[in-house]
Amino acid sequence: MTRSKQKSLIQFTSGELTEIGNHFARLSEIFLNAAKSSRESNPEQIKKAPKDPNAPKRPLSSYILFCSDYREAARLKNPTISSQDISKVLGEMWKGIDSKLKNKYEEMAKLSKIRYENELAAYKKTKENVNIEEMAETSRDYDIAHNIMSGFDDIHGSHFYNDMNSSML
Fold first, then answer.
1. Do the Cβ atoms of 74 and 90 come closer than 8 Å?
2. Residue whose C-alpha is closest to residue 99's, from 107, 91, 88
3. What is the residue-wise DSSP string for 115-154?
4. DSSP class of residue 56?
5. Mean pLDDT estimate for the chain
6. Going by CATH, does the domain composed of 62-153 fall within 1.10.30.10?
7. Fewer CB within 10 Å, N side or C side of the chain?
8. Its pTM surpasses 0.85
């Protein structure tokens, strides 16, 4: 080696190399623990809200409607290819269809979307009514409990504890 290259090399003792290795091991442990704790401390990202089985189904896109009509034909035409490859074939078919056929599926998708919006509006109304009924029931329970605790007789419209106390005097 030449003298200039010797000056640029850093030499470590075996103890220093061990210390550097331990330092990197601690760093990797810190990063692994940080990744684990972020997944564990944020469970709402992992958990999904349960879907309401009564909610209307979302509308299908024009492409999905096309695929549902032509999937079987593509499978019969290419019996040896996988499902993924069938999807690729359908994608190529969708790109190559004429605008008249594509417009037919886009109109079907629009109608499907309108149907979905109407069903969703009706669903939200019924859900709001159920929530209002639940709130009213809860509110009635609260009012009855509050009246009992405060001594108000809901049936007679008076404070029965005060009436009882005054009649006892």
1. yes
2. 107
3. HHHHHHHHHHHHHHHHHHHHHHHHHHHHHHHHHHHHTEET
4. P
5. 78
6. yes
7. C
8. no
